[in-house]
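Archive maintenance. Older records in this collection stored only the sequence; we are now back-filling the structure field for every entry so that each record is complete. The fields below show one back-filled record exactly as it appears after the update. Entries are processed alphabetically, and Alpha-protein kinase 2 is next in the queue.

ARCHIVE ENTRY
Title: Alpha-protein kinase 2
Organism field: Opisthocomus hoazin
Length field: 199
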Amino acid sequence: VIQECYVQNTAREYAKIYAAEAEPLEGFGEVPEIIPIFLVHRPANNIPYATVEEELIGEFVKYSVRDGKEVNFLRRDSEAGQKCCTFQHWVYEKTNGSLLVTDLQGVGMKLTDVGIATLAKGYKGFKGNCSISFIEQFRALHQCNKYCEMLGLKSLRTTHQKQRKATSMKSKNLPNSSTVKKTVPKKAREPRDFISSEH
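Back-filled structure field:
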């Protein structure tokens, strides 16, 4: 319960800094807000700790889920959905890829019950309630929108493709001369079709 409060209230602090940068930009408009969550100690109760937060009234929408995918594609195109995706990108960039706010969901621009994925367990005191792989998935799947551009965020696709290229180049290194090589006669070789897939 304490970790849950820490996650949501830390994400809320990032959202405040994001708002301070985004709101002055011409045409940006309203910014998503993560509502605070409070820890209540009830020593006389069987369950001594509880959390309390503002009740959100209206249509509850999931803009993203723990695995970093922007799953609700109809909502992704909404203003709130796009600004949530931009917020995730902004946090990712501000923390040099070490932290990602996930589970962005709520009513309109008011969000609650968010998650945090960290590149390293224990980063800034987080136990990591979301898998590290979610950061990799977000980097591969995120599509920048006009709000990312307004904030001057760097494209994650370029960064991701460069990292994938560097990894594939390492794996293509020739083996050293002491390695035994298996040769196939030229006439036995068949042309291969390579299909590239874009994330």
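Update note: Residues 11 and 34 are 7 Å apart (CA to CA). The chain has a mean pLDDT of 77.
Entry marked complete.
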